[in-house]
Design brief:
Number of domains of chain B: 2
CATH topology of the largest domain in chain B: Rna Polymerase Sigma Factor, Chain: A
Distance between the termini of chain B: 35 Å
Helix content of chain A: 40-55%
Structural class of chain A: alpha/beta
Oligomer: heterodimer
CATH superfamily of the largest domain in chain B: RNA polymerase sigma factor, region 2, helix turn helix motif
Shape of chain B: elongated
Strand content of chain B: under 5%
Radius of gyration of chain B: 18 Å
Shape of chain A: elongated
CATH class of the largest domain in chain B: Mainly Alpha
Distance between the termini of chain A: 71 Å
Strand content of chain A: 15-25%
Helix content of chain B: 55-70%
Number of strands of chain A: 22
CATH architecture of the largest domain in chain B: Orthogonal Bundle
Chain lengths: 544, 202
Amino acid sequence: MAEHVDEMACLLYLEGQLERARAREVSAHTEACAGCRELLRALGSETKLLRRAMIEEDEPLPERLAALPGRSGPPLPWIWGAVLGLAATGVYGLYAGFLEPVIGRLDEIGFGGSDVVSMLIFQGAFWKGWQSMISLIQILAMVTMAVASVALGRKWLRRPSAMAVVLASFCALLALPGGASAAEVRHAQIYTLHKDEVVKNDLYVAAGRVRIDGTVDGDLVAAGESVDVDGHVTGDVIAFTKNLRISGKVDGSVRVFANTLVLSGAVGRNVTSFTEVLDQDSASQVNGGLTAFSGSISLDGKIGRDFLAFAKNTTLSGFIGGDMKLRGRALSIGSTAQIQGSANFTGKEPAEVSAQAKLGSPLVYKEYKEEPRRWASHHYGMQIVWSLGTLLFGLVVFLLWPGFARRVSGEAGNYGASFGLGALVLFGMPIAFGFALVTMIGIPLGIAVLMLWLVLLYCAQFAVGAIVGGWILGAAPAGDGWALAARMLLGVVAIRVVILVPHLGGLAHFAVFLWGMGAIALAVYKGFQRGTPAVASGPAAQTA
Amino acid sequence: MEGTKTKRMSAPGRIEPAEAIQRAQAGDAEAWGEIYRQCAPAIFRFCRRALPVREDAEDATTEIFMKVREKIGQYDPARSFSAWLYKVSANHCWDMLRRRKGRQDKETEDVAELPLAHPAPGQLERLIERSTSEEVRGALARLNARARMALVLRYYSEMNYDEIAEALGVPRGYVGVVLLRARQELRQALERPGALAAGGSR
């Protein structure tokens, strides 16, 4: 009892946090000890001072907080009617001023919006033989899920131990399918399967150079700079590579995402390719159909069934067992060419058809009518309506999600991060779109990504507008949604004027895309990090 | 048994607009106006104490009421409304502060190194004697985020130790240490005005 009570105990005693027995001890001690009693008293007056200092009404509620914020006021139906009207105008502006020209441009290079979809959905050949992709897709899906859940769960995963558990279980998960499918997985700088070697399994290989001279008794899934298949693959070949050369024999189908595809061997089933260049030698034979998205296609060999393609330039000198359906700029059919079924070509220039070519039925040529230049075909009045629509759309977005808008404009002030992330998003999302397309099941996802990307691209100007407006008028007072929106409007008008400047305008436009997209992405990312309601309004703001 | 009922009622903004809340939960917009009028001054002052920048406090007040409006369904009318309101406010402000600072100061920081010195009671008494409320508020604004938050939650919102532990994400046993440490820092700040950098990065 002679021991003095320390300050901690005194505080806890005052705050009523001590256990009964300990409190009694402290109480007894302070009755006897003047020093401790004094400390207790001092702490008590400190508490009082703290309370008083905090509770005192030293400043009145600021003017702008006098009324309930946000969607507070009595809900006026006409306001909502007007807002919806504005939003509708804005959406129309988005479509007419932005999406339509983009679709138009896609059309110009032969990727008509509706045509791609209808072709993918209605052409049966496209769907055959994809079973082997499923295991790959499963892995991709699982990785994506894991990354997404780690990203979402970050808040709860701060502790390293929790993180370790998650990572460990993730690794365990990854190990499972590998064991189940018992596939061969290879990773090397240069991978060669020698002539007399046989892999009695599916082979997954990632290497700088992949050379298959031997036999793969299963599917071959390869990623690398160059992939050469000289040997024999009894299943499908799926490749992500710069150059793919098939000079051996593939019993199944070939799916490829590559810069250059050279076919000089035999393919038992179908070929689907997304390539810049597709070259088929005269010795090559594809028993099934060929579906291709390419810059240029040159066919000298044999295609057993239909040939479907979107390609800028096509040269046909080989044999096609089924129908030909082609969209592109130019088509040339050589003297050695032969088409058993019907032949359709939609393009800018009429096809050059050699008189010696053997066609089952005459080539049906449809001229691709380039829509008259959008800018010339509409009155300036419509232009103004669209611009107003864009501004109104931005205004609605800013007023509906003021918090998010403010954060975005805040992030836009973070130039380096914005531009960096902007570049990632600007180029990354189309790549994601491409991957989603290659893994057929991801088509809806891919299209959603593309749409989101376009909307982001459109919204970039609002983000940049807000900060440019801030430069002109000075930063918006905090919490004032209208002030920020007004700055955004002014900024967007300024941006549009700058974009009109020849040469420099294009560069500025690109910078706006990078900067704005980066700022939006950064704000969304930080929203996820915090897990506050901003997240809910973030993506919604972009899909509005 | 701290924070008795009478104490709570005398604290600012300890208002229980039960009837208005009922109407608000049923979706009555006017009831919101009423709740806001009654509670906004106290919540604004809370934010003003918790966040050193005035604009932040204004923004936070707005955001808190928007949040409250969204979450009103989660409020259990059997419990104290203002306690719930302060909980939402505390989480919001604490989130804001943490976002600002990043994660520089770790969760449990240096509480373990607390020097449990026996202060000279007379000296402390004199310091308290000569310090005005205004000086205390000034010193408070210069404390580090957690110290300030702990003091505000305890002596403005009258939260109990469990509630503070939850709001700040510290073990309950640390709350007393955090509070004592905060008081010691506050005393330092009072003794040497301007000695602590804003935000208290030490």
